[in-house]
Amino acid sequence: MSSSINTNFKQYLVSTKPKGAAIPAGLQDLLLAVVNTCSTLSHEVAQGALIGLLGSAGSGNVQGEVQQKLDIIANDQLMDGVKECKSLAGLASEEMELPVAVQGTGDYLLLFDPLDGSSNIDVNVSIGTIFSILKKQDPSAPLQTSDFLLSGRHQVAAGYVVYGPQTTMALTLGDGVVMFTLNKETSEFLLIKDAVTISPSTKEFAINMSNMRHWADPVRRYVEECLAGTTGVRDKDFNMRWIASMVADVHRVLSRGGVFMYPWDKRDPKKAGKLRLMYEANPMSFLVEQAGGASINGTQTIMDLQPTGLHERVSVMLGSKEEIERLKQYHS
Ligand code: AHM
Ligand code: MG
To answer: Which CATH superfamily is domain 9-193 in?
Structure first.
């Protein structure tokens, strides 16, 4: 990749050659449609109460979670923004029970969490959109749910847009990670970082500590050792952060290293975790791996998991490689 800082997103798509090959025109179209929609969403998120966007929608989604107005608005806008894309065969969203066929004969499948960090919308804390793109194995066959059930290794692109003090996108096309920031005056995403890398070691971790009593022993051991700092086996003091928007927590990990965990816990032993494999864990794992980090569910690499359902949940531990290796060792 050889794009210069301030290249806009469209210029980047045309000029970059991941693994030496130009990005197929159909994939460029789809990425542009997603990113243009996120630009519109960013302007709306910034208006919040002024345009009546805050508060609950009074409905629930397929996961039994209460939907916020913005969850539904973001979902509808993303569907609308990509529906004319000729290269898109179908899409699936965290907010909808079933996938939707789009052109029927396109090559690509789009999965998204339209508005990640829903609990932060009304308190003006960073939220975001996460997306993952797969190649449909048989473009001519009618769309089925099973078309989407491919491991994370099949992703051809993944990214997120975080709506924070700045609106910033991280993207991978399988050859490193780049970041763009939205110029709100021109509505253009401009390249700000090429070759994003996560340092292998860190002194920062992120987990919802209020769940501590429910954790499995390896997670408890890991966090207790971090908390012991220089008085314990780690012999260094750790800092803790928890934004409760995966998109913002992972953005911090990509920006300055760290570990992010939302592990399986004992509250509901049958539930694999809180986060969704297809809409959250896979795209974030692709970004993290491409930036030199690692991502596991405790014992297995997330991107190697064979999905069994569109809305499947998974235990997630991702970030700086040395820490993830340590967590894996504690689980073995
Ligand atoms: P959402 O997609 O409904 O917003 O839920 C996922 C979010 C993640 O962004 C975040 O890591 C987690 O839920 C926060 O959970 P908690 O409220 O337990 O801290
Ligand atoms: Mg989410």
So the answer is: Fructose-1,6-Bisphosphatase, subunit A, domain 1 (3.30.540.10)
